[in-house]
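In this section we walk through a basic example: taking a raw amino acid sequence and producing a predicted 3D structure, encoded as discrete structure tokens. The instruction is simple. Fold the sequence below.
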Amino acid sequence: MGYTLNVEQVNTVLAALRKDYAVYAPKRFPKQGRYSDTDVIRYAEVETFADIVWGEKSDYPVKEVITPIQQAIFYFTEDEYRESKGPKKPILILARPCDINAQHVQAKIYVGNGGYTDLYYERVREKVRFAMMECGGGDDTCFCVSMGTNRTDDYSLAFRFTPGGALAQVTDESFLPYFAEMPEEDYTPAFVEENELKVEIPDLEDPTVRQALKNHPMWKEFNGRCISCGACTVACSTCTCFTTRDVIYGDNPEVGERRRVTASCQIEGFDQMAGQREFRSTAGDRMRYKVLHKFHDYKARFGDSHMCVGCGRCTHRCPELISISATVNKVHAAVAEIKAGMGAV
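The resulting token sequence is shown next.
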């Protein structure tokens, strides 16, 4: 079922939805960007059409709604502990196809991975429904088409926003009452067919090639360039690394809460073990680990897609202007070089 809505009608639908759902969408926060006098766009609860940033890519992904940067997992006293509570209301998230596909990736990691289901993820994710926002093609860092994440059918609603309102499609009949008496119009969502940026995904099936790639000199370039700040992984749509931290209340060390806090494989010391041993002690080693995990290891484990969805946020957030797309294209060239040296086709 399709509808055509002006701004006032969009606000009416949002008001009705907000009675039953916590509605999240990209929202602009003025003067809160990383540089002086700049804004940041991130997912937050919205109330009106004016709150929704639909013409620009958010700086941070949908995952902040489902797996916040910091979240309490339990509270403790000297004698007992109490598990934190999940969300009370269902959640409706307005998201582009790449971000919806990113949640499919996260679900494989958090739910049923090796027989273990992450409670704190599952209790939020089971309350989430998606409203797909059409994407106009992204910007010069997007390569969703190369990753096959430019399309999705996982949505209850779809919107094409314009300055004057929106076209809407309802695919889940439970949402039809929210559009009661709204003017109907046929609407079929459109998906991005081509990005300005294209990425060549390297073929890493051959273990001999992978081993040679791990020792390729290209990774040493990052030793003098990457500052291991972890900004790329915080902005990544699919990264899931975290650590835990105890927060003590007052002066009593036995009363407080345990929090799960976003962490990063790109930060020095993340993989440090007893005896101060690190498996990846240089920025180049850490970059190699991240890139090969995104473009080989995840797919080798779960078998259906690569971990990267091509949103390009990591490129935007990197203070050293390291481009993930340029890096993957370098990997593709390095693999071709290795195969040529092995006499492979």
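Looking at the output, two observations stand out. The two ends are 51 Å apart (CA to CA). The first strand starts at residue 2 and ends at 6. In the next section we compare this with other chains.
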